[in-house]
């Protein structure tokens, strides 16, 4: 995941959006296999459906696809769906794994015709590899440099047509020459609660867990707009339902389970709440500097900035201003507190 994502600097979190612990194995089982099973992202689905159908009708390889969006929104899943819809094999690698142009040349030269190459975190590839990719994407050719200095020679290598599916947290992180070489760019949005509820019902079916609509809605509301988190919370609630109840997930069971795991009604966890509570109760809602806030909650300031704040800002609970961090009216309301009068103290 990118250096700026929520979870990189923090310990494993139940509400972290990156894949952690046993996620990978379970995710493989829960991944939708085709576009019709893929929940939400209507525009992306419709557009991609057209791109793929048209390529299939022409008997051609699909255009290169760039997927941007936060971790856990389904970029890897979508790349596998592209492969399935095109009836093509898929090769999965990531930007950090490609640090030399030679690493990329090795991957590219072993691709089969029509193969899908999924390059996760494409913005983290090295510069020389990136430059090699320009030519590979456009002309299906690379120049492999053999030797060094004056004796170096470029050996041209023809590649079979392939489809590159690049994934990144933000398309803006890519240099424009790379971005421009993608024929189709899709931005994945956070999911709304109704869509997450559908994800949860689908996953519960696959996991053979009984869940009622209110139980699914409760989990969806705490899943931070992210299917990966929804699936993870579902598994923890399933544990609770199995151990403490009759195995059926209802609203009451979801609420009780997620309070054991300290995930509140808006999906805030212990760290998020500690940051907001310090801001509200110790500093009257701010403004307060990041370092002071971090000391108050006993965390590194990177952890507060990278792990807690992105979600709090996205939720409109905290604002980063030039004078420091401030709590919004929604933050006061979430904690059931009254904001201080102008110039007065916190209630
Ligand atoms: N639209 C969706 N419908 C149903 N399940 C989904 C959807 N999107 C994601 N999921 C589920 O969420 C989990 C995470 O998805 P995925 O690994 O594709 O995310 P990602 O965007 O590639 O994340 P990362 O950037 O961290 O690699 C998977 O288990 C997948 O099954």
UniProtKB/TrEMBL annotation:
> What does the entry list as the binding residues for ATP?
30-31, 72, 75-77, 138-140, 181, 191, 228
Q: Which domain of life is it from?
A: Bacteria
Q: Which GO terms describe its molecular function?
A: ATP binding; ATP hydrolysis activity; four-way junction DNA binding; four-way junction helicase activity
Keyword vocabulary terms for this entry: ATP-binding, Cytoplasm, DNA damage, DNA recombination, DNA repair, DNA-binding, Helicase, Hydrolase, Nucleotide-binding
Q: Which residues form the AAA+ ATPase domain?
A: 61-192
The entry's DNA-binding residues are: 320, 325
State where Mg(2+) binds: 76
The annotated region (Head domain (RuvB-H)) lies at 265-347
Task: Give the start-end ranges of region Small ATPAse domain (RuvB-S).
Answer: 192-262
> What sections of the sequence does the record tag as coiled-coil?
none
Extract one GO BP annotation from the record: DNA recombination
* InterPro entries, sorted: AAA+_ATPase, AAA_lid_4, DNA_helicase_Holl-junc_RuvB, P-loop_NTPase, RuvB-like_N, RuvB_wg_C, WH-like_DNA-bd_sf, WH_DNA-bd_sf
Q: What is known of its domains?
A: Has 3 domains, the large (RuvB-L) and small ATPase (RuvB-S) domains and the C-terminal head (RuvB-H) domain. The head domain binds DNA, while the ATPase domains jointly bind ATP, ADP or are empty depending on the state of the subunit in the translocation cycle. During a single DNA translocation step the structure of each domain remains the same, but their relative positions change.
Q: Which family does the similarity line name? A: Belongs to the RuvB family.
Q: Which PANTHER family match?
A: HOLLIDAY JUNCTION BRANCH MIGRATION COMPLEX SUBUNIT RUVB, PTHR42848
Name of this protein: Holliday junction branch migration complex subunit RuvB
């Amino acid at each position: 995941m990118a250096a700026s994502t929520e979870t990189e600097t923090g310990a494993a979190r139940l509400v972290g959006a990156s894949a952690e612990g046993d996620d990978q194995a379970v995710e493989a089982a829960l991944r939708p296999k085709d576009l019709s099973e893929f929940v939400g992202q209507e525009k992306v689905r419709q557009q991609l459906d057209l791109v793929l159908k048209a390529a299939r009708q022409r008997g051609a390889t699909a255009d290169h696809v760039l997927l941007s969006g936060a971790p856990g929104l389904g970029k890897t899943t979508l790349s596998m769906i592209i492969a399935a819809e095109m009836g093509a094999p898929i090769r999965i690698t990531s930007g950090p794994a490609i640090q030399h142009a030679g690493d990329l040349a090795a991957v590219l030269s072993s691709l089969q015709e029509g193969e899908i190459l999924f390059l996760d975190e494409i913005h983290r590839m090295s510069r020389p590899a990136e430059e090699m990719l320009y030519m590979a994407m456009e002309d299906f050719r690379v120049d492999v440099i053999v030797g060094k200095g004056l004796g170096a020679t470029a050996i041209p290598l023809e590649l079979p047509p392939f489809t590159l599916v690049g994934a990144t947290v933000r398309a803006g992180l890519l240099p424009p020459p790379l971005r421009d070489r993608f024929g189709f760019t899709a931005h994945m949005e956070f999911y709304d609660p109704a869509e997450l509820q559908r994800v949860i019902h689908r996953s519960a079916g696959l996991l053979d867990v009984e869940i009622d609509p209110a139980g699914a809605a409760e989990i969806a509301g705490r899943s931070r707009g992210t299917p990966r988190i929804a699936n993870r919370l579902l598994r923890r609630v399933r544990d609770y339902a199995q151990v403490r109840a009759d195995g059926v997930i209802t609203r009451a069971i979801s609420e009780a389970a997620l309070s054991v795991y300290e995930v509140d009604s808006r999906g805030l966890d212990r760290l998020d709440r500690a940051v907001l509570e310090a801001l509200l109760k110790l500093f009257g809602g701010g403004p307060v500097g990041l370092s002071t806030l971090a000391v108050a909650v006993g965390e590194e300031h990177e952890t507060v900035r990278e792990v807690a704040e992105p979600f709090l800002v996205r939720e409109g609970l905290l604002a980063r201003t030039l004078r420091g961090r401030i709590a919004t009216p929604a933050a006061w309301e979430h904690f059931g507190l009254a904001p201080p009068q102008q110039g007065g103290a916190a209630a």
